[in-house]
Amino acid sequence: MEIVAPSNRVQAATAISLSYTLGEALLGVVQYLTYDWRTTIRVLYTPCITFISYYWLMSESVRWLLAKNRPEDAFAVLKRIAKVNGRNVSDEMIKNVICFEIRNASKVIQNS
Fold first, then answer.
1. Which of 86, 89, 67 has the alpha carbon at shortest distance from 76?
2. Which of 76, 74, 81, 68 lies closest to 99 in space, CA to CA?
3. What pLDDT does 102 receive?
4. Is the pLDDT of residue 61 over 90?
5. What is the rounded distance in angstroms from the CA atom of residue 75 to the CA atom of residue 80?
6. Which single residue of 18, 39, 47, 58 has CA 20 to 30 Å from 4?
7. Domain limits at 29?
8. String of b and e for 22-56 (b: at least 16 CB within 10 Å)?
9. Of the candidates 32, 54, 31, 25, which has an alpha carbon nearest to the alpha carbon of residue 44?
């Protein structure tokens, strides 16, 4: 949810919740069409194999990288995000974002 703007978080949470409901309905349809539980398992798990590729396609969360004291990696991820989105963002602006996140994290820790 951290990559979704605060104004869109309700819609994102609704979409996530709706995906669980649709998945359960799809499970019933697949079971009805396949009859055998072994075939059902094969049909349902085959698309999940594609999730293995996420290891190479998805980057770590910027906040997680900062929490693990890896600001250089967070900088590289933010540069990549800007490039993918077709934005020209200066290195100074990215450094300011990283400093802002670190300051906010330290405030949260102090208030805990």
1. 89
2. 74
3. 82
4. no
5. 9
6. 47
7. 1-54
8. eeeeeeeeeeeeeeeeeebeeeeeeeeeeeeeeee
9. 31
CB-CB contact of 97 with 78 (8 Å): yes
Last residue of a domain, one of 37, 54, 71: 54
Per-residue pLDDT, averaged over 17-40, amounts to: 93
Say if residue 4's pLDDT is above 80: no
Placement of tokens 């359960």 in the chain = 24
pLDDT at 111: 64
Give the number of domains in the chain: 2
Residue 56 has pLDDT above 80, yes or no: yes
Rounded CA-CA distance 81/88 in Å is 10
Q: How confident is the model at residue 15 (pLDDT cuts 50, 70, 90)?
A: very high
Q: Could you give the dihedral angle defined by the CA atoms of residues 106, 67, 86 and 94, in that order, rounded to the nearest 10 degrees?
A: 40
Q: Can you give the length of the chain in residues? A: 112
